[in-house]
Write a structure and sequence with these properties.
With 296 residues, this protein is α+β, with helices and mostly antiparallel strands. It contains eight helices and 17 strands. It has a five-stranded antiparallel sheet. A four-stranded antiparallel sheet has the order 10-9-8-11, with no helix packed on it. The chain has a three-stranded antiparallel sheet with strand order 4-5-13, covered by helices on one side. β4 and β5 form a beta hairpin. α1 packs across α3 and α6 packs across α7. The chain is elongated, with a radius of gyration of 28 Å. The protein starts with 25 loop residues before the first helix and ends with a strand.
Length: 296
């Protein structure tokens, strides 16, 4: 795909006798014109000597500016590298490799955008070019990739680190399908007890009891639904709980990252054990790109 120099986006070789038919990208042109008028991009388009649709293509598609400038092979190479990095980001989501892959995606996108500077009508000094490139990098990171990552984690999948492993959570799992025995991810709100402060975050645990069921804590064991189990760290003693409505009993075995007086840790942990259904996030995927999910 190469932008014609005389009128990008118009068909070449149109018949003198019949009006040209609407092309498949005509809708893109209309959208581009509207966005251009709304954002007042016409001045920038005139400076770069490029139409609004092609400018939008250059911004949205990594490697798009190379196609616009007629450097098709470079555009294909950048796009292929971007797609490879995107696959690496998804496969190793949550690990250091994914962070490197995301950095490569942003860098390739910025490299493509910087190519548009070659069409600037006046020569830029080295200092101005470096400052402009840094500005493009920051804008791309903050305005495109930070919101994109937030949308993915809010509506599709969320990586949670459990000790030295990562479990990918499906945030599209409905809360109505949750049952006793399910392993779920849930939100943990910030808690402050005395001098101890627990930062907000996420927990991952298995539902042991649901609303209305009783849990009995003794000195060496605890009992849920007549099933006796070994007592776990920081559990109360000689006490009985009834799970309130719209809550689950999930004992927080995850490491508690808190600062302050350690003597208050049992009180904080016990307060986290009754999880409101409103804090439900999702369930782990059974497999993630062929890799079996690690479950505690």
């Amino acid at each position: 795909m190469q932008a014609p120099s005389h009128n990008p986006g118009s068909p070449s070789g149109a018949s003198r006798y019949y009006p040209p038919r609407a092309q498949w990208y005509s809708g893109l042109g209309n959208v581009g014109d509207r966005v251009s008028r709304h954002l007042r991009l016409d001045v920038l388009c005139r400076r770069l000597k490029i139409s609004a649709p092609w400018l939008l293509l250059s911004v949205v598609l990594p490697g798009g500016s190379y196609f616009v400038l007629g450097r098709r092979r470079w555009g294909q190479a950048v796009l292929a590298g971007y797609c490879l990095a995107a696959v690496g980001f998804l496969v190793w989501l949550g690990y250091a490799v994914a962070h490197l892959a995301m950095g490569a995606m942003i860098s390739l996108h910025v490299l493509s955008l910087v190519q548009l500077l070659t069409r600037w009508p006046t020569e830029m000094s080295t200092r101005t070019r470096i400052a402009t490139s840094l500005g493009i990098f920051l804008a791309t990171s903050l305005l495109i990739y930070a919101p994109l990552r937030a949308v993915l984690e809010r509506y599709f999948f969320l990586p949670l680190r459990v000790e030295d492993r990562v479990v990918v959570i499906s945030v599209r799992s409905p809360v109505e399908a949750v049952r006793r025995g399910d392993l779920i991810a849930y939100r943990i709100r910030s808690v402050r007890v005395g001098n101890l402060r627990l930062r907000a975050g996420f927990g991952l645990g298995r539902i042991e009891a649901v609303a209305g069921e009783r849990i009995r804590f003794d000195e060496e064991v605890y009992t849920v639904n007549d099933v006796t189990r070994p007592r776990r760290a920081d559990m109360p003693q000689n006490l009985e709980w009834v799970v309130p409505p719209n809550h689950w009993f999930i004992w927080p075995d995850s490491v508690i990252h808190a600062s302050g007086d350690a003597a208050n840790v049992p009180q904080v942990v016990q307060g986290l054990a009754l999880v409101p259904e409103s804090q439900f996030v999702g369930k782990p995927f059974q497999r993630w790109f062929g890799r079996e999910q690690v479950k505690p």
